[in-house]
Amino acid sequence: MRYDDTVTYDVPTARVRSSFGVPVYRSGLLLSVAIASVAVALLVVHLLLGVNRRAEHGPVRVAVWIDARHPGAPVPQRFLGLSFELSSLGQIARYADSGNLATLLRSLGPGVLRFGGASADTQAAWTDPVTPRPAWASVALEIGELRKLRKLAARSGWRVLLTIGLIHYDPRAAAREARAAKAALGPWLAGIEVGNEPNTYARHHFRPLPWTYSQYDAQVASYRRAIARVAPGIPFAGPDVSGSNAFARWGPSEAIKEKPALLTGHHYPLGCHDTPAPTIARLLSGRVRRLERNSLASYMSVSRASAIPLRLDETNTVSCGGKAGISNTFASALWAVDYITQTMVGDAAGINLQGNPANCRGYSPLCATTPARLARGALSAQPEWYALLLTKALIGDRPLRTTVASPEQPNVAVMTLLADDGSLHFVIVDDDPPGASAAAVSLRVGRTFRSARILPLTAPSPSANSGIELGGRAVARDGSWREPTRLRQIAAQGGVIALTVPPSSAALVTVTPAHGSVGH
């Protein structure tokens, strides 16, 4: 959870641009001319202009081309992750012995559990025989909870990224906590962050002005020295700032001075105190999607320049815990499918969706619907969990440059990745509202591909918080979900896969090569 409610984005541009800076023109005529010359130059293009196309006009045409000659780096194995408040660590750790969390996590493959949020600095404090709980702390962290967390990590195959608070400056206590974490978690400790959104400390009166990266770095450096003396070899992550604007100011210095093993930052597309107030329409708007791409590009420019991987270790729909009617609806799943996939094709190291298992009305991929179910760890899949299930198929894939064109300007995104077996994975997200016309998508895959298998993600409406299905199936009460053995198949015709995508839906389209080779 964020300290601040300010949404941090780069300045929006008047036209959608690719990662190579090539404009995509609004005029259908100019677009058709431009596409012919830049088909190879575009990585991911969104035609997200918010046009409310009406169904009576018939399906809108969307053409997609790929360039398979220069695939990107594989999506890391532990790309997917969840993030929780540090104050909930004890509760999550107890699920090692009860409930369905370990089973749910295993269903996604290996991942990363991150514990941080505002509570890491303001509520939770380490305690042991020589470290009494300070007066400011309402939650005490103990060695027994870390040992239980190791058991959950071992059962699920998920590693742990742990945040140690910085607001209440105490390097010696931090060193004792890090030493205990290393001893208790062993190989399951992925790393340690120092402070949650430290760039906001002065704004919230936790540090005097001026509060700059230099002041922060002096304190973090003392923490790291103290930790290295008693627990050498722990990887560090940071600076864990509140958004891409802050990262542009703090990230380069962090990379140069602290040289962390992992760069980290947060992302929330909407703020809880925004004016106008957050809505589903805003969350799924073309403007937000464009700003998200600018934001990710800002993050990744630092990562690439420093050769240090970047993880968006806390992200979700609306800051301050989310907003009922948005964060707990199918709209959040559509947002998550798009944002998770764009971080994959953008070469990030991973992403952690923030959640609160006790709050089913806010943002949370998993939650308990009653206090009794929370106590025994009987968690239910929320809409965003379906986005994680869909995108787990992309782990290990390599992004491909993709060009999307339509004279009718639909709010449709298409991203493409290449699997190890030569198959193509197309992720299609149609963010247009109910009542809009469907998208008639033509995937120009080439004649070496023979057929496609469609895994749809659907719900009654973007505002629905029930009736959500992936491949026509809902997640069962015990957390299990299996892909149907029979999915809709579409044969290629002349090197083209033609399918129709309804508004307010998403799909994973797997295109199979005829002879194990990739077409161009």
In short:
The protein is α/β, with parallel strands linked by helices and 520 residues long. The chain has a domain at 80-270 and 295-324 and 332-394: TIM Barrel, CATH 3.20.20.80. It contains 13 helices and 22 strands.
Describe the overall structure.
The chain has a domain at 80-270 and 295-324 and 332-394: Alpha-Beta Barrel (TIM Barrel), CATH 3.20.20. The chain is globular. The strands form four sheets. Strands 1, 14, 15, 16, 17, 18, 19, 20, 21 and 22 form a ten-stranded mixed beta sheet that branches. The model is unreliable at 2-52 (pLDDT under 50). α7 links the parallel β7 and β8. Helices cover 28% and strands 24% of the residues. With 520 residues, the chain is an alpha/beta fold. It contains 13 helices and 22 strands. It starts with 27 loop residues before the first helix and ends in a 7-residue tail after the last strand.
Pick out its properties:
disordered N terminus; 520 residues; 22 strands; 13 helices; single chain; alpha/beta; 8-stranded parallel beta barrel; globular; TIM Barrel
Mind telling me the CATH superfamily name of the domain at 80-270 and 295-324 and 332-394? Glycosidases
Judging from the principal axes of the Cα atoms, what is the shape?
Answer: globular
Largest sheet: 10 strands, mixed
In whole angstroms, the N-to-C terminal distance is: 44 Å
Low-pLDDT parts are 2-52
Helix content: 25-40%
How many E-type strands? 22
The helix/strand class is: alpha/beta
**Rg (CA only):** 23 Å
Q: Could you report the average pLDDT, rounded to the nearest whole number?
A: 90
- Write down the CATH topology of the domain at 80-270 and 295-324 and 332-394: TIM Barrel
CATH class of the domain at 80-270 and 295-324 and 332-394 reads: Alpha Beta
Strand content: 15-25%
CATH architecture of the domain at 80-270 and 295-324 and 332-394: Alpha-Beta Barrel
Number of helices: 13
